[in-house]
Inverse folding.
């Protein structure tokens, strides 16, 4: 059975490596086409260059950027509107163009909480991706954005309630941690064989390491703590087609 192609959509440079770096590396290693769309930051910024290095490590091609500004960092895309303030229809159309160009079998993005931190850009990227994944298959929507293409499923990167205590042991108390009931998780992926790649991709985001964001926390952890934090990825499957014969596509 061929491995499904995978398009990941995340809010900021580093989200792809932290949230889905193991699955991206695993699909690429199995010969699947993989790519990442990043909603914020401009292509000529240092963080875009760091993103390119992270994607090279993960085997996920060249960066694809929607070009909006980070909600908390206006200089991330000088002269551009913040993602959360952009017209929703415009943001959806930009993403539809990437979906129809890449033609993925499956997609990955943030869950409805925006992952553990609940960042507003993460939450909004979830909303935009949910709409775009449906719209991409409808020919009368955004006809100038390419030929229609319908991915089979959208996987939402998440954390179950049961994983939070162990994560807190590693990273300490955070301002907020958002997780979902364990029974909502439909795919639990052991990415330990690809952990070295995943960590290298996280650390490629050097500006985040230097400012002490989560990649910086990870950089200071011993190997066993890095493994506890990053060796498992959890997803909620959202079906985009209804055929009963479709099976779980995410490599688990």
């Amino acid at each position: 059975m061929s491995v499904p192609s995978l398009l990941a959509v995340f809010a900021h440079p580093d989200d792809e490596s932290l949230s889905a770096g193991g699955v991206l590396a695993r699909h690429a290693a199995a010969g699947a086409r993989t790519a990442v769309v990043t909603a914020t930051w401009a292509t000529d910024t240092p963080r875009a260059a760091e993103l390119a290095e992270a994607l090279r490590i993960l085997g996920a091609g060249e960066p694809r950027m929607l070009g909006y500004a980070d909600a908390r960092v206006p200089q991330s895309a000088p002269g551009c509107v913040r993602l959360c303030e952009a017209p929703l229809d415009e943001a959806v159309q930009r993403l539809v163009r990437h979906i129809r160009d890449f033609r993925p079998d499956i997609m990955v993005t943030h869950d409805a909480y925006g992952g553990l931190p609940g960042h507003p850009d993460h939450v909004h990227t979830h909303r935009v991706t949910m709409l775009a994944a449906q719209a991409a298959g409808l020919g009368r929507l955004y006809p100038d954005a390419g030929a229609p293409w319908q991915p089979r499923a959208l996987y939402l990167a998440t954390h179950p309630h049961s994983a939070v205590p162990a994560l807190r042991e590693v990273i300490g108390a955070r301002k907020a941690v958002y997780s979902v009931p364990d029974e909502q998780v439909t795919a639990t992926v052991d990415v330990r064989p690809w952990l070295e790649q995943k960590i290298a991709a996280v650390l490629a985001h050097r500006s985040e390491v230097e400012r002490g964001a989560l990649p910086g926390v990870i950089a200071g952890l011993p190997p066993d703590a890095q493994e506890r934090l990053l060796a498992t990825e959890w997803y909620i499957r959202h079906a985009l087609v209804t055929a009963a014969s479709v099976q779980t596509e995410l490599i688990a």
The chain is about 40% helix and 15% strand.
